[in-house]
Amino acid sequence: MGTEYHRATEEDMSNVSPFRSATDTVTEKLVDIRAIAARPMRFLGFWTAILAPLAYPPLLLSGLDGQTQLLLLAGVFVANVLGLVLGRGYRTDA
Questions:
Q1: Exposure pattern of 23-59 as b/e (b: 16+ CB <10 Å)?
Q2: pTM over 0.70
Q3: Among 1, 56, 68, 76, which has the minimal tally of Cβ within 10 Å of its Cβ?
Q4: What is the pLDDT of residues 40-92, one digit of tens each?
Q5: Contact between 20 and 47 (Cβ < 8 Å)
Q6: C-alpha 14: how far from its chain's center?
Q7: Rounded CA separation 39/45 (Å)
Q8: Quick check: 87 and 42 in contact, CB under 8 A?
């Protein structure tokens, strides 16, 4: 006969914050996605930086006769530099 109302309990109020907006949650999710994507990128960058220099001796010893071999050497060099940049923070916690 009276109007029933839901009494707010401490459990109901634990997730409510007057200072957080919907954009805060979207930003947090975006940061989580970046953190998830960063680890594999660091892994690939690290191992590229380790393995790319192994291609230098065969390329340099072959004499770099043609434009194709020169471009291949330049590509390996660029991959090495990118690997160094991307893999910089890999396993710093270990």
A1: eeeeeeeeeeeeeeeeeeebeebbebbeebeebeeee
A2: no
A3: 1
A4: 999 999 999 999 999 999 999 988 888 999 999 999 999 999 999 999 988 87
A5: no
A6: 32
A7: 10
A8: yes
